[in-house]
């Protein structure tokens, strides 16, 4: 086994036998994640330690681990922000959760509860928001995670743990803005049927809207219709986009297409006084080009959205359990973490990757 570097908070162990947890950590900005056994410092009063059952992989994990967001990232680094697990241990001040309860974590590790955004309920925009993983904290690519009680979610009865972990990022990213702006009789355009879009189709349909899926995957028509879309249309053909202009009360765009004609055609799908929601993020240094004439003359509301706030996330979990909304996933064993990451990084997965962590952790004596 290679010599593992020290971490600023966790104590690296020589083997899993003496460890509290085993992560898959990146040791530098290239290569695969490796197993990293570690011990936690004492549990803080308001912390909850979670045995991870299933963890989802999200593309932003690559951007972080490869140093594409922050070139000064410190290694070892363990990403992961789509966690479903069971409470293993609680700090002395924890009141909301008990050992043995099913819980989840989303991309946010902390909210201050005192800044202006937190007071308005928009805690995802908290001025002290830190991600589920950063230089000092490991994320969900691990057998365990320790998070402040205020950022832990209750997993509702009947929730499908094996499929559901990606909802904590991908699910709420589309559920929250649809829920904010929808009415049940609305028409809804979902642009891009990938990891986000295939969930947006399901939520929009279950909320009662009539959904058209804009995609290049016409060959997947049956599958996309089974998710709840009534119609399919091209996401890149300007002529056919033109034919759909102004028809949709809500447009949710999970793509960012650099071709200006196509991107503006996406905006023009929005009906007069309708809402255009952009959740697909462009690469840094690329700016959105809005069709100002169309937006002004038709009184279009343009909305951005970042994951969802605490209440929206909890509500999304309940809505998903009740309405059977789950992503289509590829599932991997814990030891195949590097393989799962590789598929996700190369965008080969259909549609989200999930790792069964609990099975390995239990079999290897990490549920102590
Ligand atoms: Zn994510
Ligand atoms: Zn705050």
UniProtKB/TrEMBL annotation:
Cofactor(s) this protein requires: Zn(2+)
**Sorted alphabetically, which keywords does the UniProt record give?**
Metal-binding, Oxidoreductase, Zinc
User: Do you know which InterPro entries this protein is assigned to?
Assistant: ADH-like_C, ADH-like_N, ADH_Zn_CS, CAD-like, ER
Organism field: Paramecium sonneborni
Which Pfam families did the record assign? ADH_N, ADH_zinc_N
- Give residue ranges for domain Enoyl reductase (ER): 25-355
Q: Classify the source by domain of life.
A: Eukaryota
* Name of protein: Enoyl reductase (ER) domain-containing protein
Q: Which family does it belong to?
A: Belongs to the zinc-containing alcohol dehydrogenase family.
Signal peptide residues on this chain, from the entry's feature table: none
Q: Which GO terms describe its molecular function?
A: oxidoreductase activity, acting on the CH-OH group of donors, NAD or NADP as acceptor; zinc ion binding
């Amino acid at each position: 086994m290679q010599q593992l570097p020290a971490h600023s908070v966790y104590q690296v162990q020589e083997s899993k036998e003496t460890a509290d947890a085993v992560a898959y950590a990146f040791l530098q900005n290239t290569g695969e994640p490796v197993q990293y056994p570690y011990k936690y410092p004492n549990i803080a009063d308001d912390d909850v330690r979670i045995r991870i059952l299933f963890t989802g992989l999200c593309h932003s994990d690559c951007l972080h681990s490869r140093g594409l967001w922050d070139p000064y990232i410190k290694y070892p680094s363990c990403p992961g922000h789509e966690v479903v697990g069971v409470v293993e241990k609680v700090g002395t001040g924890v009141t909301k959760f008990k050992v043995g309860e099913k819980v989840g974590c989303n991309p946010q590790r902390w909210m201050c509860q005192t800044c202006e955004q937190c007071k308005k309920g928009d805690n995802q925009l908290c001025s002290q928001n830190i991600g589920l993983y950063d230089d000092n904290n490991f994320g969900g690519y691990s057998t365990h995670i320790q998070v402040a009680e205020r950022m832990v979610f209750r997993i509702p009865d009947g929730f499908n743990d094996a499929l559901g972990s990606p909802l904590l990022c991908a699910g709420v990213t589309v559920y929250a803005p649809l829920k904010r702006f929808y009415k049940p009789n609305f028409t809804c355009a979902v642009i891009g049927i990938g990891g986000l879009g295939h969930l947006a189709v399901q939520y929009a349909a279950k909320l009662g809207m009539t959904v058209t899926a804009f995609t290049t995957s016409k060959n997947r028509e049956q599958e996309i219709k089974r998710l709840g879309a009534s119609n399919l249309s091209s996401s890149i053909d300007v002529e056919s986009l033109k034919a759909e202009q102004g028809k949709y009360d809500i447009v949710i765009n999970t793509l960012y297409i650099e071709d200006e004609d196509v991107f503006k055609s996406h905006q023009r799908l929005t009906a007069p006084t309708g809402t255009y929601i952009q959740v697909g993020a462009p690469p840094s240094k690329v700016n959105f080009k809005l069709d100002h004439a169309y937006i002004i003359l038709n009184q279009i509301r343009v909305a951005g959205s970042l994951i969802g706030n605490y209440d929206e996330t909890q509500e999304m979990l309940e809505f998903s359990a009740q309405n059977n909304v789950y992503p289509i996933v590829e599932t991997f064993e814990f030891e195949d973490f590097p393989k799962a990451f590789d598929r996700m990084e190369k965008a080969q997965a259909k549609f989200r990757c999930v790792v069964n962590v609990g099975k390995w952790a239990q079999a290897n004596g990490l549920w102590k």
